[in-house]
Amino acid sequence: MTRRLLLARHGQSTTNAADVFTGWSDPPLTGRGVAEAHAMTAALADAGAVPDIIFTSSLQRAIHSASIVRDELCPLVELRSSEALDERDYGDLTGLNKAEIAIRYGAEQTRTWRRSWTAAPPHGESLRDTAARVLPYYLREILPAVLSGQTVLVVAHGNSLRALMIVLEGVPPAAAETIEIGTGAIRSYLMDPSSAIASASWLLRHSGVH
């Protein structure tokens, strides 16, 4: 029995390209983002990791990326979308340029808002807040599918996936800032029957798309 969980970040969006805080805004993929989704498909095919079910957030950059994978690799597979997997809410920072925010509030404060486990930007979510909505959905919907022996693909966002990776891999909150998943990257887990991680690896770390 395989019990494989695949966490994939969507391809590059227009706001990723502009280096702004995206949060709950809903921009489309760039041409590069579409190419990254195709690269994800190729990596999954090369690894023999054809999904039996695909979960996505409710945001179009994740749904579009997941749809490319499904249409090319497994067209009959169900695609389930949920707001529980949406990106972290960046509150008042949403839509603002990251470099400009670093100038306005200081590089250290900006880094803390972006990377720490507990710090939340003004009127936004901390990474811990994000985990509090991602984890119940994971336990209720995603994990049972994995433990049934299915290959499960989750296409979501940098911070919603970071929150899940931190918990799955037992990363101490103080080290949360070290966890990163780039656009188009895929993290692969094999699980034992108790739901513990038997192995973890990068199926695709960098898409190679420019």
Task: Briefly say what this structure is.
This protein is an alpha/beta fold and 210 residues long. It is 40% helix and 16% strand. A hairpin with a 5-residue loop joins strand 5 and strand 6.
Give a structural overview:
The protein has 210 residues and is of the alpha/beta class. It has a single domain, classed as Rossmann fold, CATH 3.40.50. The protein contains seven helices and six strands, in the order E-H-H-E-H-E-H-H-H-E-H-E-E. The chain has a six-stranded mixed sheet with strand order 3-2-4-1-5-6, sandwiched between helices. Helix 3 links the parallel strand 2 and strand 3. Helix 2 packs across helix 3 and helix 6 crosses helix 7.
Set out the fold topology.
Layout: E1 4-9, H1 14-17, H2 31-46, E2 53-56, H3 60-73, E3 78-81, H4 98-105, H5 107-115, H6 127-147, E4 151-156, H7 158-168, E5 186-191, E6 197-204
Parallel strand pairs: 1-4, 2-3, 2-4
Antiparallel strand pairs: 1-5, 5-6
Question: Any descriptors?
Answer:
210 residues, six-stranded mixed β-sheet, alpha/beta, Rossmann fold, single chain
Strand order of the largest sheet: 3-2-4-1-5-6
CATH topology: the name is Rossmann fold
| Biggest pleated-sheet summary | 6 strands, mixed
How many helices?
7
**Secondary structure category:** alpha/beta
Unreliable sequence segments: none
Helix residue percentage: 25-40%
What is the domain total for the residues?
A: 1
- Overall morphology: globular
The quaternary structure here is single chain
Estimate what percentage of residues fall within beta strands: 15-25%
Please tell me the overall pLDDT.
Answer: 95
Question: What is the gyration radius calculated from CA atoms?
Answer: 16 Å
CATH hierarchy: architecture? 3-Layer(aba) Sandwich
